[in-house]
Amino acid sequence: MLALKVDDTKSFMTKLLAGDTFDTFLFSEGSVTTFTTFSIDGTWHQDYFGDEEQASNENSFTWKLIRPLIFNIVKGRHTPIHMRIVLKLAGYNVDSLLKSAGLPITREQVDGLFLNITYAKDEVSVTTGTSLKIFTLDKTLDHVWDDMVRKFLQTRGISAV
Fold this sequence. Notes:
Blueprint: E1 3-5, H1 9-17, E2 26-33, E3 37-40, H2 51-57, H3 63-74, E4 82-88, H4 91-101, E5 110-120, E6 123-132, H5 140-155
Antiparallel strand pairs: 1-6, 2-3, 2-4, 4-5, 5-6
C-alpha cells in the first residue's frame, strides 16, 4: 500500500473533476460532503439502460460516466467539506499490468487494484490498495501497482509525496 499527499490540491482537483486524467478507471464508490453527504455505491444497475446502451457501456461504470455528476455536486462558492472517491483499474489494464510484470496470476484472480482519493481540509491524499480472490503471501503485485500509480501520477504532472 502506498499513501501519498498531493502537493497541488487545486491542480489535482481540476484534473480529477474537469479533465480526463482518470477517465479510464472504473468507479467503485464515493462520497461527497457539502451541505449534506452524497454517497454513491458504484453498483451498476443494468436494468436502467436499454439493450443498445448496455452493449455500448459493457457494464463498465467508469469515472468518465460519473465525473460530471460529482463535479455538479462540488461546484459552487464553497469547497466540499470532505470527498472520497475510490477508483478501480479497468480489467484490460489489469491484464497489461500482470503481463508486463510477469506475474503468475490471472486477471480473474484479481478482485481489484484500487486508487483511493480523499479530499479534506484543502488536502488531497492518494492511497493504493489491492484485493485478490486468492490467498498469497507474495506482495509483488502490491509493489508493481504502487510503482504504476507513481508513474501514472508523474506522467500526468501530479506531484505527490
